[in-house]
Amino acid sequence: MYIGRVYRIIDMVKWTRFETFWFIFIVIIWVCAYYFLDLHWLRIPWTPMALIGTAVAFVIGFQNNAVYGRIWEARKIWGGIVNTSRTFGVFVQDMLSDEHTEESVSEEIIAEEVKVLTYRHIAWITALRYAMRSKKLWETTSSHKTNTEWGIRPPEKDSPLEEELKPYLSKSDLEHVMSKDNHQTALLYLQSHHIRKLKDKGIIWEFSFLELEGLIKELFTLQGQTERIKNFPYPRQYASLNHYFMWLLLLLLPMALIPQFMDIGKGFADNYPILGQIFIWFTVPIYAAVAWMFHTMERIGRTGENPFEGTSNDVPISTIARGIEIDLRQNLGEVKDQIPPQFGADLNVQW
């Protein structure tokens, strides 16, 4: 357990190392200015710095709480997709029969209809996760150097949507879906139209038809909820200003921190002249630690603003979608060799 914590701390330090280098550079410039130019008069009292630091801490805390709410809501939505998908799979298998048809329908035809509906649902999940991974203008976290240097990326970046949909849709359905801007909505429309046709043939009973349409409605609701998070960014007036306030604090902090260390050094300079003279340089690690904590907390908030962007801290919608597919296809009676395996976890990251 403790070894795992140490590795996580090391990863966090590596993740923020470029900004940490900037903090060290900034404070060294300030210390050199005070040390060599005798700028002891240039100082900011601790009272305004404490007020600024408290305000920034509150804003960062507010941002992180709001961002966590977005992440948790996204996870609950995809949990709802899991549950509704399983319900849809079992309803389709048990509600399709020739009990209410005018003529007898073979079990092979019933099984084929079940497979078509199930595969179309898998296509819907696939289209939905691809839509969630599409790039938005405000999604910039994934392009940061420390997020790209690991060389890991979501599976949606490795294969186009059309290729992924081919195994689950007929040629005509695929052409129809790809001709629409919102592929997942087009698939739910096709699903509803297909269910209605089966009801007209008597393969689906009237009451069963209403139940299945209710599930289609629930899938539309869940789709709309996840699209809302994807298409509406965390408000810029909070995210951007918070970022600027944090940097304002970190740029002003040396003018309050360095004079304090100078005064402490002068206090024992008579007894320890060398230590008293160089004590100002202890500002460097202290400032770097304080700046690192403020910046890391603020960056954690920025990283979680978009839970579907495709970074290592996002909701693992690819893994969730593939898990649904595996469940549905196994319960269709398919053997494991016919079913795609679960996506791997690169560097312990689930997509």
Rg, nearest Å:
29 Å
Overall structural class, as computed from helix and strand content, comes to: mainly alpha
Rough outline: elongated
Report the sheet-strand fraction: under 5%
Head-to-tail CA distance between termini: 24 Å
SS elements, strand count: 0
Order of secondary-structure elements: HHHHHHHHHHHHHH
Instruction: State the share of residues found in helices, binned by percent.
Output: over 70%
Number of helices: 14
Reported for the largest beta sheet, the result is: none
What is the residue-averaged pLDDT? Answer: 87
Q: Stretches where pLDDT falls below 50 for ≥5 residues?
A: none
Explained architecture:
- The protein has 14 helices and no strands.
- It has 351 residues and is mostly helical.
- The mean pLDDT is 87.
Fill in the keyword field for this structure.
351 residues; 14 helices; 0% strand
Reconstruct the topology from this structure.
Blueprint: H1 2-15, H2 17-37, H3 46-95, H4 107-132, H5 145-148, H6 161-165, H7 171-178, H8 183-201, H9 206-231, H10 236-252, H11 254-267, H12 273-278, H13 283-303, H14 317-331
Helix pairs in contact: 2-11, 2-13, 3-4, 3-9, 3-10, 3-13, 3-14, 4-8, 4-14, 7-8, 8-9, 10-13
Summarize the structure in short.
The protein contains 14 helices and no strands.
